[in-house]
Amino acid sequence: MRRFALILALWPGLLQAEEFRTLNGDEILTALTGHKLDYGQGIWQTFDDTMLTQYFSGGPSSGRWAVREDRYCSLWPPSDLWACYDVQKSGRVIRFVDDNGGTTEGTFAE
């Protein structure tokens, strides 16, 4: 047992989860286009290659999405204001980070 503990002590990162990495614009497009994210509790979102996005949280909502200056941006009518987020990825998890540091995480749906 002590050998196992020594191996863990000498091999940092062995038990650490994959860290989140910030995506650039091309990586955001590749990661999201044609995919569906599951946010849990029946909430999900799709990202069409036509730059339309569908969000479902108790009912459907349609908007537009784009990548601008290495950030994911979305527009949800009736508003005409775009909201933009940094995008990070770790394994099958995508994290959207707003300008105040708030985060929303979704997992790629099967």
User: Largest sheet, described in full?
Assistant: 8 strands, antiparallel, barrel
* CATH architecture heading: Beta Barrel
Question: Numbering strands along the chain, what is their spatial order in the largest sheet?
Answer: 2-3-4-5-6-7-8-9
- Helical residues, percent: 10-25%
Describe the fold and architecture:
There is one protein chain. With 110 residues, the chain is an alpha+beta fold. The chain has a single domain (19-108), classed as Beta Barrel (Lipocalin), CATH 2.40.128. 15% of the residues lie in helices and 46% in strands. The protein has two helices and nine strands, in the order αβαββββββββ. The protein has helices at residues 2-10, 25-32; strands spanning 21-22, 35-40, 43-47, 52-56, 60-68, 71-75, 83-90, 93-97, 103-108. Strands 2-3-4-5-6-7-8-9 form an eight-stranded antiparallel beta barrel. The radius of gyration is 17 Å and the shape is globular. Mean pLDDT is 89; it is low at 1-15.
Task: Describe how the helices and strands are arranged.
Layout: H1 2-10, E1 21-22, H2 25-32, E2 35-40, E3 43-47, E4 52-56, E5 60-68, E6 71-75, E7 83-90, E8 93-97, E9 103-108
Antiparallel strand pairs: 1-7, 2-3, 2-9, 3-4, 4-5, 5-6, 6-7, 7-8, 8-9
Features of the shown structure:
110 residues; alpha+beta; Lipocalin; 15% helix; disordered N terminus
